[in-house]
Structures are given as C-alpha cells and as structure tokens.
Amino acid sequence: MDLDALNKIANKMVETGKGILAADESSGTIKKRFDQINTESTETNRRDYREMLFRSDGMKHVSGVILFDETIWQKAADGTPLVKVIENAGAVPGIKVDEGTEAITGTSGELITKGLDGLSARLPKYYEAGARFAKWRAVIDPVAGRHSHTGILANAHALARYANLCQANNIVPIVEPEVLMDGDNDIDACYAVTQWVLKETFQQLYYMNVPLEGIVLKPNMIIPGKKSGKKAGIAQIAERTVKCLKSCVPTAVPGIAFLSGGQSDEEATAHLSAMNALGNLPWKLTFSYGRALQHPAIMAWAGKPENVKRAQTVFTHRAKMNGLATKGAYKSEMERELAA
Ligand code: 13P
Fold first, then answer.
1. What is the pLDDT of residue 338?
2. Are 97 and 319 within 8 A, CB to CB?
3. What pLDDT shows up at residue 339?
4. CA 281 to centroid of ligand 1, rounded, Å
5. Residue 24 CA: which ligand 1 atom is closest?
6. What is the CATH number assigned to the segment(s) 3-339?
7. 266, 295 in Cβ contact below 8 A?
8. 8-12, 77-81, 240-244, 335-339 — which is least confidently predicted?
9. Could you please report the per-residue DSSP string of 132-188?
C-alpha cells in the first residue's frame, strides 16, 4: 500500500470548490430513472446520457466520478474510453464495487451489503482500467425496531474489510454508511443512529488497520425522515450534522463527501453550504451526490439528442452551485442564474 499516493487522491477528491458525481446507478436504478423520462434503458442510451454529463462544463466543479461496472469499460460515441473523457476533464475515475444488499436472516429486515467475495481479484482490474477510488454503500434504517447491534456491526465490519482490500490495491475507499433519510423517524433518531453507526464504523476500520488518511467518508446528513412529516431548518440540519460528525470522525480523515439521499437538489446544496459557512471544520466537507446533481439534468435531457445542450447547461449550473457550497458561498438567489 502506498499511503502517500492514497492520501493525495483522497485530498484531490475533496478539493475545495469541487465534489464527486455519483453516476454509479445499478442497472435497476438507472432503469427507474429512465422510466421517468420514458426512455428505454439500453446500453447505448446509458452511455449517451453519462457521456453527456462527462463532457459538460459542469466537470469544472467535479473532482471525481463514481462509475458502475458497465461504464468503466464503455467507450464514448467517438471511441474514446469514458474513463479517458473523465480524466481529460480533470476528474478522478472511481468504481462502485459493492453488489447491492440482502436481508440478514433473523433480523427485522436489516440489510447487509454484498460483494466481498472475489473483491480482491476485481480490484486490480479496476485499477488497471483507471479507477483510483471505490465506493461501498451500507444501509441502516434509523426507524426504531429496524436496526440493531447485529446489523450495524455486520455492516461496519464489511465496510472495514472492503476498505482494507481497496487500500492494499492503492484504491481509495469511499466508506459509505448510509442511515436512510426517508423513514418516519424524527431528527433525534437520525442523529442517534448515525452516531452509533459512525462510532462502530471507525472502530472496525481501526481493527482492520485502515489508515484514515487514505479514505473518504460518505455519510448522510442529520435530517428528519421524509415520512415523519417534520421539517427542520437549514441551520438546524447543518449544526446537528456537523456536531454529530465532530463527535465521531477523527481529524485524520481528509474529507467527508455527503450523499444526497432523496433531498431535493436545492436543499442538498443549501445544507452543504450552511455547514461550510459554520467554519472551524477539521476536514473538508463536500458532495458526492447522485440524484441531487443529476435530477434536473436528466429531466431536461428526456432522452432526446436535441436536448443535450440544455441538459448540459442545467447540469453545469447544479455542479457550480454545489461547488460554491463547498466554500459556504451558495445563496438561493443564485438559482435565478439558470433562468437568465
Ligand atoms: P444520492 O445522492 O442520490 O443519495 O446517491 C449517492 C450515492 O452514491 C448513494 O450511494
């Protein structure tokens, strides 16, 4: 393991002014997104959609792109490997290596992430293809009765095993323990469960000898569940998220890149900006958004070649707003720039 090289990549991924584009939707998830725009999810359409994003000006605000296995081997319409298109735009290619989740037998539906079997053989191939970081998503439900020590420990242990294997192959692991934001729990439950999950995750990373200088953490924000009907203000979400992270995340971690988890695009930007505006943070705080970066762009594209320019403009605007949020400099009035 070359920790110096890992640390350099991790720092590049969380560089101020930029963030990570999560474009690693599995075949099932991208089909759902394409269904919304009445577009068939063919290999070519998936390629065209992602190539459109990777060739947009928005890449100026993108430090890294998380790819799905299919995409890392794909070529752009002109024959250039998509990995090269990403590198040419100044971003680091990354790869989702988990294989989704399954229920843990004997629990109340808790999930464990699959993909450790064979991972040590897959990682060198991804490195060869250009991947310099990877992603593994663990999922925890914060609703009372739907999480336990069993599920939290099993997921933290799997994250640590994955991180250890990535680093051995000089690939920076994005460690993503996602506490879901769509349940009927309040903000306190989100806080308490996220704290528990992060504490366990860092304990397991320590036991597995994972140097924290060579990882990026990808957590949820502290938010009341969507189905709770409760709303929290931007300032409250920012303060509680930073408080939770400060109590759990060692300062050796170079940066934290949030998932958006079903927040609207503008909410996700406003929350990140408010956190950075608090100042006095021991790590970089940035974005690693899927839906919150792509939703307006995919809607503008609607699967039609004649919409590519507009969709790229929409994507670039979103990426720029999030880039400003990494400096705490985003204002909701800036959304008007796009209409202009
Ligand atoms: P969202 O931002 O849509 O939650 O996706 C980020 C991600 O990569 C989840 O694993």
1. 86
2. no
3. 79
4. 23
5. 8
6. 3.20.20.70
7. no
8. 335-339
9. -EEEEEEEE--STTS--HHHHHHHHHHHHHHHHHHHHTT-EEEEEEEE-SSSS--HH
**What's the 313 CA to ligand 1 centre distance in angstroms?**
22
> Given the CA of residue 261, which atom of ligand 1 is nearest to it?
4
User: Once rounded to an integer, what is the mean pLDDT over residues 110-116?
Assistant: 98
- Residue whose CA is at the smallest distance from ligand 1 atom 8: 22
Question: Is 176 an active-site residue?
Answer: yes
Phi, psi (deg, nearest 5) at residue 194: -60, -40
Ligand 1 proximity of 261 Cβ (cutoff 6 Å): yes
333 is catalytic: no
Using one digit for the tens of pLDDT, what is the confidence trace for 138-193? 999 999 999 999 999 999 999 999 999 999 999 999 999 999 999 999 999 999 99
**How many angstroms is it from 148 CA to the middle of ligand 1?**
23
- Find the catalytic residue in 18, 96, 135, 218: 218
CB 123, CB 1: distance < 8 Å: no
Q: Is the beta carbon of 289 within 6 A of some atom in ligand 1?
A: yes
The residues spanned by each domain of the chain are: 3-339
User: Hey, is 26 helix, strand or coil?
Assistant: coil
**DSSP E strand boundaries for 275-321:** 284-289
**Does pTM surpass 0.90?**
yes
pLDDT tens, 50-70?
999 999 999 999 999 999 999
Pocket perturbation via mutation, ligand 1, pick of 288, 295, 318, 322 by most ligand atoms within 8 A of CB: 288
